[in-house]
Design goal:
The protein contains seven helices and seven strands, in the order βαβααβαβαβαβαβ. By secondary structure, the chain is of the alpha/beta class.
């Protein structure tokens, strides 16, 4: 391991890795020497995006289709990662969706889709990876949350609820796992200039970029072993 490639020999599993924040995190961690396990629902798009990573950064990588909301798929992907790459040092729960509008007008399907993707999937992936990390007495779980998990806004009722719940889950898991050398952190960005949702009236160049979130993730996983940042709030310097 060198200062230029501090993640050499470590494996990072990233969900929602076919685009936006997830893909930016994959590039950043690979640049630091980390091997990659990348999954997303859109396997075709992920294949096109991820194919260049091993050659570009000289790392090992596997990638494929995994719908983290479907029973058994998170556990299966964790098993495949360990079988193919040997271990999991870093888990980034990045998969997420948002359906916006007044909560009293939302459907039950809107509720289920968001909670299954934004909260339950993070729990299932973490539940599958945690025993492996406990056995290794090391690991880092990073949940990509949102400032919507700290603040409320009109039309964000269900989305905010999922992110507030993710904050609570993450904090409790951090306490459950810290004694085993496993760190749990959340990253809470404001609006990010990605395909996730429209940002009417906001200048893209003044918004956070996916690479900004990736930078924070890289910072978290390269901390000294005796400490961890449990929660990072990320805001653009310009509000408009």
């Amino acid at each position: 391991m060198t200062s230029q490639r501090p993640l050499a020999g470590q494996v990072a599993l990233i969900t929602g890795a076919s685009r936006g924040i997830g893909l930016a995190i994959a590039h950043r961690l690979a640049a630091l020497g980390g091997d990659l396990s990348l999954c997303a629902r859109d396997g075709e798009r992920l294949d096109a995006a991820a194919r260049e990573l091993p050659a570009k950064y000289g790392v090992r990588a596997i990638w494929g289709t995994c719908d983290v909301t479907q029973p058994g798929q998170p556990e299966a992907w964790v098993r495949r990662t360990i079988e193919s790459l040997g271990h999991i040092a870093i888990l980034v729960n990045n998969a997420g969706i948002g359906v916006f509008g007044p909560a009293h007008l939302a459907s039950e399907a809107d509720w289920d889709r968001q909670f299954d993707t934004n909260l339950k999937a993070a729990w299932q992936m973490s539940r599958a990876a945690a025993p492996h990390m406990i056995e290794r007495r090391s690991g880092h779980i990073i949940n990509i949350s949102s400032l919507a998990g700290k603040n409320t806004f009109a039309g964000g009722g269900i989305y905010c609820a999922t992110k507030w719940a993710l904050q609570g889950l993450s904090g409790c898991m951090a306490e459950d796992l810290r004694g085993y050398g496993v760190r749990v952190s959340t990253v809470c960005p404001g609006s990010v200039n990605t395909e996730f949702t429209a940002h009417a009236g906001k200048a893209p160049e003044n918004m956070l970029q996916a690479e900004d979130v990736a930078h924070v993730v890289a910072m978290l996983v390269t901390q000294s072993a005796q400490s961890f940042a449990s929660e990072v709030h990320l805001r653009p310097t310009q509000k408009a």
